[in-house]
Write a structure and sequence with these properties.
The chain has helices spanning about 10-25, 70-85, 100-110, 125-130, 160-170, and strands spanning about 40, 45-50, 55-65, 90-95, 115-120, 135-140, 145-150. By secondary structure, it is α/β, with parallel strands linked by helices.
Length: about 180
């Protein structure tokens, strides 16, 4: 179906939603927006605020326990974190699960050493980052700017991805 085939009211609603997202700052676009700050709790009850990590490269990985692609990418993301955490890389897994039990079950089978934060009400998923698919990953530079948005599963163990993160940690924006 093309835009011409959509009813007029549907086109107007889509345009209004698009404009509303820009007016309200709901969309986190790479290379231009400061990453919206948030405060979420991890599975052990510790509070994490994104602004606490300013000055470090941060990877926000949005996922859910029912998402197979999300779980598949977790080992390579954890390996990257383990390799680079001494160089100030921060990885935060943010799950949309409403209950912690399914998350804990996934983490028993696929353990990670980075914090996993609960966003059971969707405050960060929907209102701050407008996550449109899972998994979805945002890379944030030391200045708090979103430099990349990745929709879908990723192999974080590739040389290209490692180089990009290394460049961000040493200089700023990747080339």
């Amino acid at each position: 179906m093309t835009v011409k085939q959509l009813p007029l009211y549907t086109c107007l609603i889509l345009i209004a939603l698009h404009l509303f997202s820009f007016q309200c700052g709901l969309s986190a676009e790479p290379h231009s927006d400061i990453a919206p700050d948030f405060q979420l709790t991890d599975l052990s009850g510790k509070v994490h605020t994104l602004s606490d990590y300013r000055g470090k490269v941060v990877i926000l990985n949005f996922w859910a326990s029912w998402c197979p692609e999300c779980i598949t990418e977790m080992p390579s993301l954890n390996a990257l974190y383990e390799k680079q955490k001494k160089n100030s890389l921060v990885v935060l897994g943010i799950t949309s699960d409403r209950r912690s039990e399914p998350v804990a079950e996934v983490l028993k089978k696929t353990p990670v050493s980075y914090p996993v934060l609960m966003d059971s009400k969707g405050a960060v998923f929907i209102r701050k980052y407008t996550v449109i698919g899972l998994p979805m990953t945002f890379i944030i530079d030391k200045n708090g700017l979103i430099v990349e948005k990745i929709i879908g599963g990723t192999d974080f163990s590739t040389a290209g991805f490692a180089k990009k993160i290394q460049e961000l940690m040493t200089a700023g924006r990747p080339k």
